[in-house]
Amino acid sequence: MRYNPNPKLPVPLKSELIHLHKNKGMSGRQMADYYKVSQMQIRRWFREREIIPRSRNKAPSGRPPTGEKNWNWKGDKVSYQALHSWVRRHKGTPHECEKCGTTEPRKYEWANISGEYKRDLSDWIRVCTKCHRKMDKK
Ligand SMILES: [Zn+2]
Known about the structure:
Layout: H1 14-23, H2 28-35, H3 39-48, H4 80-91, E1 108-112, E2 124-128, H5 129-137
Antiparallel strand pairs: 1-2
Bound molecules: zinc ion.
């Protein structure tokens, strides 16, 4: 049975959502990034699957992994999400858009320039979600 009427959206398993959220310590926002959906969608998935979200202010019991050795690196075939986390860890959380220069929306993401998702920090720029979406459409 499909939970989601929109076939374009991924329909993750409950166990996968729980794993990402509780074991990997991903926030709703990170999970939205991961699945390329809105945070609203993540919340909906949680609700539909009766998953109780981690409390916002409480630190996860197992801290999220830090450092490369904790990620399951497979050369350049490393998963998009792990790569994103790696970039964020090395370059920090972006606070402005390098494309349009805005500091308005307060939500920025690391975007890949080459589209090859290189494990190369110079292949990533910080952009606002609007520019990121535009880049992904290309
Ligand atoms: Zn922008």
